[in-house]
Amino acid sequence: MRSRLNVVKGCLFVAALIGLYYLFNVRLSIHPKEIQEFITSFGWISPVIFLVAYTLAPFIYFPSSLLSITASITYGIWPGILYIWTGALGGATSGYFIGRFMGRTIFSKRQIPWNVRMRYLMENRGFLVVLVLRLIPLMGFSMLSYLSGFSKIKYSHFISATMIGIIPGMLMYGTFGQSIVSGSRLLLWIAIAFLFILSAAGFFLRKKIKKWLGLQP
């Protein structure tokens, strides 16, 4: 049942990407370049505002995907991808320390997967666990950051695994945002290809990863 639900979610996300592309390039009178020009009109401070917003996102549970798309629309593939990468690392860092100091409070209010096996792996093979769950996100971006801080994974292991693990998603958002601005169908299909690869990996490896983490028998 869950596998079917994940397929449905993946299809809906692809439909949303195509819908946004169509909305910006066909239906709306406001062209994405106007959004781009408005944000960049603030000059050098505009990327600083974006990075601060990304860093603060875990405090208010704001979806980082919206910030990533906005950055790629505004700054293009480059330096948009650099800003997405830097901002995501800032958000991951703030989430990690929220988990370190407020983990028990968060856990009491939110349903978070946790067991003895997973705790052992997080504490002893933290880099690998974070890397796998960044590449194949079985939980939300901020949630994994909270969990990592709470389980006291070394920050150096956590952030280095995050730096590598977010690259595929970062490339997907970067190419998608640029496809909206440029109207390039090639970039749109590249973004969808990234999404398909990530979704397929999650679909086929989900059960193995959950079993490895002790989340299912």
From TrEMBL:
InterPro entries: TMEM64, VTT_dom
TM region(s), chain numbering: 6-26, 38-61, 81-99, 127-149, 155-174, 186-205
Keyword line: Cell membrane, Membrane, Transmembrane, Transmembrane helix
Domain of life: Bacteria
Endpoints of the signal sequence: none
Major place of residence: membrane
Topology relative to the membrane: Multi-pass membrane protein
Every VTT domain range: 62-178
Any one cellular-component term (Gene Ontology): plasma membrane
Subcellular location: Cell membrane
Family in the record: Belongs to the TVP38/TMEM64 family.
PANTHER family reported in the protein's UniProt record: GOLGI APPARATUS MEMBRANE PROTEIN TVP38-RELATED
Protein name per the record: TVP38/TMEM64 family membrane protein
Organism whose genome encodes this protein: Marinococcus halophilus
